[in-house]
Amino acid sequence: MSSDPRPAEFPSSGLERALPHSPGLRPAEAPSPALVFDTLFAYQRTAALRAAIELDLFRAVGEGPGDVGSIARRCSASERGIRILCDYLTILGFLSKTDGRYANTATSAMFLDPRSPACVASTARFLGTPELQKPFESLAEIVRTGRTVLPGEGSVEPENPVWVEFAHSMAPMMAPMAAPLGSIVLNGSEGPVLVLDIAAGHGLFGIEIARQNPQARVVAVDWAAVLEVAKENAREAGVADRYETKPGSAFEVEYGGPYDAVLLTNFLHHFDHPTCVALLRKVRAALKRGGRVAALEFVPNEDRVSPPMAAAFSLTMLATTAAGDAYTFSELRTMYREAGFGDVTAHPIPTAPHTVVVGRAV
Amino acid sequence: MSSDPRPAEFPSSGLERALPHSPGLRPAEAPSPALVFDTLFAYQRTAALRAAIELDLFRAVGEGPGDVGSIARRCSASERGIRILCDYLTILGFLSKTDGRYANTATSAMFLDPRSPACVASTARFLGTPELQKPFESLAEIVRTGRTVLPGEGSVEPENPVWVEFAHSMAPMMAPMAAPLGSIVLNGSEGPVLVLDIAAGHGLFGIEIARQNPQARVVAVDWAAVLEVAKENAREAGVADRYETKPGSAFEVEYGGPYDAVLLTNFLHHFDHPTCVALLRKVRAALKRGGRVAALEFVPNEDRVSPPMAAAFSLTMLATTAAGDAYTFSELRTMYREAGFGDVTAHPIPTAPHTVVVGRAV
């Protein structure tokens, strides 16, 4: 075996092929085992970033002076551990290293140092929830059966506590999308509007509409424990007097209305086509004629492999739900039409990998 | 919070920034949360590739015709699961997709389809060993204490069965290095030589020397269960009559000798500096005067953050050993000199991320 004249080309800079700050990419069709090994080791990247966030390392580096000793003291950690972790984070592009001192890169300074208002470090908590990650250890079995190994409906089982964690920790990821979504939904209307926010979570999307339009009233639906987070956020935003909640399942709770608009954010992807259509029918019944439904979704192109982040989200739905998916626009449009909506349009959010899909009750 | 005018730029093609086949990279200093989210989701890449290997998907795709239905039948898996997994593998660069049919990329055809003699798919078994991966779930704690959460010496505890798995499954990764290592160690010598192979594992390195030089005799040291794999490989290679084994710890077993050369492959990185020096002294004592020791190692540059794959290996040693590391050449040279070696030279292996560090007993 050892004399096999295999044409293995294994560049010593293997890992950099998968790294965003790498200058030299090679053609996709030049075979190299580097991609295989990079991928088999990719779980370490997630572990390293999570550990750094848990240790509050990006604050420690950001405050300087950036030598191993002072970072280790601020993080209450060993110098050996800090040195190796910081080197690894430098390789990934989260830190820079000059003369043995580390500094946050622009990305880390803005999105990982807790002193930045745009910090998204808290999202590591939800994205690292064992319930959402564990199924990936059984992914071959999930591919065999075509559904999550979690019981029942998976992550969308009633009162699942992961959605409380979602409400607490994912707001910073969703916040940049709230303003564009609000504009799309309000569509210039300035008068009194009544808006239903289904699967409200942290509530930011409905709250943003109440902020953009002082005559807007918002009704939020989610599990009771989740709505506590949304109510707190509504109080902080000063819109609590126009913010009402309806605890329960989006499929069972009485919506009331009729509404001018309904938000369906990060929700349809958890369910199969018939379930989505049934929900959209219920939504349509709660809308005024001409009212708008707006779903915030990962919407891959029709090829289902681009853009990468939206398309890759299908795997999370395979692993954690019974029958969810990242639906293409044509699939969503079909659902909307079957549920009685017209004028279905897609609005990609420029600052995010998400798309808002709007339909009008006809 | 939602009205925060944060400058988040989140390109809809986020994932591609971390993907090797991506055409458009952006400057490292343009802040984007995409790298953060790519990294928090990176564990899914490992899970997807492992699942595909477990399902024998690359053979199924390679044999064609590549539609979801026929791949699902060959893999005894659901069409939904196969479709989503194949799309994800396409995003990562392992498959291509044309008109709904999948094909192996050049990398997968050569390194993941079991019909290829260069297939390295078996390495997923060792690299996915729970004992080696579990510690990464406690990485913050490991950084705090500076050592693995595994008991004792971690992965190098006596008779650890992971090294049997290593011997069985890692040969395809190591095989391309055997011929260059053999040439470096033999250094043109054609007469009778006696070679000691410490931590022999699969035995490929010593066996290759026996193949390159018909007058070479090889003595292999490793745990008894591991040596069974090496002996089987020596038989298959037709060199069993010149292949002897000494079961036990490299630190305790009587080496015999004197030897013309000693191989120390993938071994020094598990231990701290004083332990490496002690072992090298023992090696030197077993060498003829002028004899050579050759260590196969991941050797990062002095900056410890390049080349990426060699430098990143430090994190694996932090997570799985008590005090191991990926040592720089200057660190290794110091160890060699302290142990009585001279003429210390580094020989990067062109087809691999590894380097052979040679010293001469003086």
Order of helices and strands of chain A: HHHHHEEHHHHHHEHEHEEHEHHEE
Structural class of chain A: alpha/beta
Biggest chain contact: A-B, 129 and 130 residues
The residue fraction in helices of chain A comes out at 40-55%
Distance between the termini of chain A: 69 Å
> Largest sheet of chain A, described in full?
7 strands, mixed
Oligomeric state, counting identical vs distinct chains: homodimer
Short description:
The structure is a homodimer of 362-residue chains. Helices cover 42% and strands 16% of the residues of chain A. By secondary structure, chain A is of the alpha/beta class.
Note down, in words, how this protein is organized.
Chain A has helices spanning 34-40, 43-54, 57-63, 68-74, 79-92, 106-111, 123-127, 130-133, 139-145, 162-169, 171-186, 204-212, 224-236, 273-285, 308-320, 329-338; strands at 95-98, 101-104, 193-198, 216-222, 243-247, 259-265, 287-297, 341-348, 355-361. With 362 residues, chain A is of the alpha/beta class. Chain A has a seven-stranded mixed β-sheet, with helices on both faces. Chain A has a two-stranded antiparallel sheet with strand order 1-2. In chain A, α13 links the parallel β4 (216-222) and β5. In chain A, α14 (273-285) packs across α16 (329-338). Chains A and B meet through α1, α2, α5, α6 and α7 of A and α1, α2, α5, α6 and α7 of B.
